[in-house]
Amino acid sequence: MTDIKCKWTEAGYPPEAFNEECAKFIFGSHYNQRISYYGHKVEVLNKEAALLLDGRLLEWSQFKKLEGNYVYLQTGFKLEDSHEIRPIRQEKASGEYLFTVCNAVRNYAKPIFKEMHSYFELTCPDGKIYNFGLQSTDEIEKGGVSYGFATVTGNLSCPDSNEFMGERVTIHKTPSSISQEKGEALLEQLRREKKEGLPFNWWQNNCAHFVASHASVVDIDISVHRSLLGMWLPNKFNLAVECYIDSLPKIAQNILTVIAKILLFIPTIFVNMITYLFLGAWRAFSHNKRRVALICNPYDFFFKLPTVNMPHALLAWQKEQKNTYTESATRIVGALI
């Protein structure tokens, strides 16, 4: 039995409807994870494999003729619209808006430094649940280290793919009730951002920053800033240091800035040159037309840099919240509501 046929059988799909081309389509693009998430299966129709498309079954021989890119949601495959936000699922009306901070810890990553991805859910009063995440694009992935400091237009994913990864991730979730006014304003902002795009930068405008900045819109204060030197220290320690520096009188900050400029003039110029020439900052662009993504100034370099936005800092905040819970298995949504 071929590997692809084994996957088909293990997924519980009907063996009599096995089609190698259909199986490669499903498993090659990880649609199987989404099909499992919603409790769906490949069915048999007219003696061949059939997939769910907009709530109706369609034979593979007809489905493969369709043009365009498709996303899999609660009603099955749906033609993708890069400018539209769509709910990941529809549940019973809750009557309120709920903002849920999510952190997916990938269980297959090395234990020394767990790989994480941050995103958030927005539950609407009518029971529609959206989730949003900011991810890098193929452009920045292929560029590797040469794009390390570059800012590109990121992929505002809706829904976020980490929700479908099942037991491959442990998802930490922290829900908070928000007002109708804040919920509506956030949803409108996200629709606009989906159309216009958002800048993505590995260090400053990453997934953790995306969550924290949108949490602030609904009055949830989360700090995800961590210095590279202090990222292993407790979250409260980092916050205390930042608060201490920011609380100094303006004249004291000015004096320290002058000292920092004198002491760190040469190191700062060196870091800026390396960043600009070799780490992709010259490629940087964003909607406010910044030429460089991360060129440090002496004061920041002395006290706060290199500072990055960390999903680990967001997870530290979650662990301090009593209502944080975890999910580690594939969610079966069940029947449509």
If you had to describe this structure to a student in words, what would you say it looks like?
By secondary structure, the chain is of the alpha+beta class. The chain is built from twelve helices and 16 strands. The protein has helices spanning 3-10, 20-28, 31-37, 60-63, 138-143, 180-196, 207-217, 235-247, 250-263, 265-278, 298-303, 311-319, and strands at residues 43-45, 48-53, 56-59, 70-73, 76-79, 89-90, 97-106, 116-123, 128-135, 152-153, 155-157, 169-178, 199-200, 225-227, 307-309, 325-327. Strands 6, 7, 8, 9, 11, 12 and 16 form a seven-stranded antiparallel beta sheet that branches. It has a three-stranded antiparallel beta sheet with strand order 1-2-3. Strand 2 (48-53) and strand 3 (56-59) form a beta hairpin. Helix 1 crosses helix 2. The radius of gyration is 23 Å and the shape is elongated.
Q: Share of helix among residues?
A: 25-40%
For the secondary structure, the number of strands is 16
Along the chain, the helix and strand elements come as HHHEEEHEEEEEEHEEEHEHEHHHHEHE
Straight-line N-to-C gap: 39 Å
Major sheet attributes: 7 strands, antiparallel
* Average pLDDT reading: 80
Structural class: alpha+beta
